[in-house]
Amino acid sequence: MSPAAAFMPVPSGQVLDLMQHRLQRALRERLRYRYVKPVVRAQGDNFRIQSPCCSRNVDPQGGMIDIALLVPQACGHWSLCARDHASGTWITRFDNQPLDAALELLCVDTERQFWP
Hints:
It is built from two helices and five strands; from the N terminus they run H-E-E-E-E-E-H. The chain is an alpha+beta fold and 116 residues long.
C-alpha cells in the first residue's frame, strides 16, 4: 500500500455533516456533565469538542473550554487528544483507535482527562 493510500481523505460536505452529527449523538451518552451541551466543531479534517466549564476548574466563569480533539489517522482510526489548559496545547491520550473506541474513552473518561 502506498503512503497516500494509508490516509483518509479530508471529509467534506455531507460526510463532514454526518461525522459531526455522529459525534454529537455519542456525546449525549457521556457520563460526566450530562446537563451541558457540548459543541462539535470541524477544523479541517479534525473535530474539536468544546463544552461549558461546569466544574469551574479551568474557567471560573463557566465559559466554553476545549475538551477533546479527534484527529484522523491511517486506516480509519483516530487519535484522541485532551487539552492541557495550563500550557494551551493538545496532548495525545489515545492513538490509533477505531472511532467507536475513541468515543467510548471520551464519554466514559474515568480519569477525567477530558472533562476537567
